[in-house]
């Protein structure tokens, strides 16, 4: 059994995570998925809610646990890691917006601080 924590703030990151997880999740349903959507003060308020809805839809067969947090993304994601103790953290390379390029500051900060495997999801 593996526990995945998906840290997201956009539908694009959530969709990429669903694509990544499809071939990795145990069909017997023994894996757990926790989706933590963070409402960053610098992004539209509906983005986190939309990201959670995509997770519920695309990963419905695996019944992901979902939660929405408000605040600074790195702080909230680190707190979620402490609370849920997942085996693997999934993050997007950046906010998932069309203007993002490369690995952004949130992903870089998490890569430097997290003590478990971190998957930076490729975005289309």
How would you summarize what this structure contains?
This protein is of the alpha/beta class.
Fold and architecture overview:
It is a single chain. The chain is an alpha/beta fold. The chain has one domain (3-120): Rossmann fold. It is built from four helices and five strands. Helix 1 runs parallel beside helix 2 and helix 3 runs parallel beside helix 4 (105-113). The protein is globular and about 40 Å long.
Write the layout of secondary structure elements.
Layout: E1 3-8, H1 11-22, E2 32-39, H2 46-58, E3 65-70, H3 73-84, E4 88-91, H4 105-113, E5 118-120
Parallel strand pairs: 1-2, 1-4, 2-3, 4-5
Helix pairs in contact: 1-2, 3-4
CATH superfamily: HUPs
Strand segment tally: 5
Low-confidence stretches: none
Mean pLDDT: 90
Strand content: 15-25%
Topology as a string of helices (H) and strands (E): EHEHEHEHE
Please give a handful of descriptors for the protein shown.
alpha/beta; 22% strand; Rossmann fold; globular; 124 residues; five-stranded parallel sheet; Universal stress protein; Rossmann-like_a/b/a_fold; UspA
